[in-house]
Amino acid sequence: MLAELKLGDFLEQLASASPVPGGGAASALAGAAAAALVSMVANLTLGRKKFETHKVVMEEVLARSETLRRELLKLADRDMAAFQAVMAAYRMPKDTAAERAQRDERIQACLKEAATVPAEVIRLSAEVFELSEKARRHGNPNAASDAGTAAALAVAAIHGAALNVFTNLESINDKEFVQNMRNCLAHSETVRRLISR
After folding, report:
1. Which of 21, 90, 121, 158 has the fewest CB atoms within 10 Å, i.e. is most exposed?
2. Is residue 5 part of a domain?
3. Can the peptide bond before residue 21 be classed as cis, meaning omega within 30 degrees of 0?
4. Which class for 53: exposed (0-12), middle (13-18), buried (19 or more C-beta within 10 A)?
5. How many domains does the chain have?
6. Is there a domain that residue 1 lies in?
């Protein structure tokens, strides 16, 4: 579980020759860090009399950013598990026609999960981005740079996760699944705007 690692230990693992954790987990963690910064802006705003008019908005921002932070952290672990499952599927025996068919079926199922996880990272990180904009507008102006950093990290999470989605889609044979996945990403105005940057 990444949440149980010290930051230095995680970075050591990320820098190693091991493919896990990789870009997918790092993207999810970038999204989680963005959500944490949004929470920080909210916490620096709430309880201060001069920002009382923004209390309701910032309470909503804080509640949602905390939920997103936890969900994105879980997705980092799920991304690693998905990649490991893909690698295990490729190592399945393929000596007979039956083994090859079973292996191919397992690979395709694992690739779908490996595409689905970063797609969820994109969706949640896009929401974090929107919250960062709200935090910047309604939050303590002394923390505006933190809201801006949250936005930048959310964008990085989206871009990194998108690379993982599209890489996995290239190997998936189910054309309907691929098209549905592409449509889901295209239907988000925030994602379209950010990926096109």
Report:
1. 90
2. no
3. yes
4. exposed
5. 1
6. no
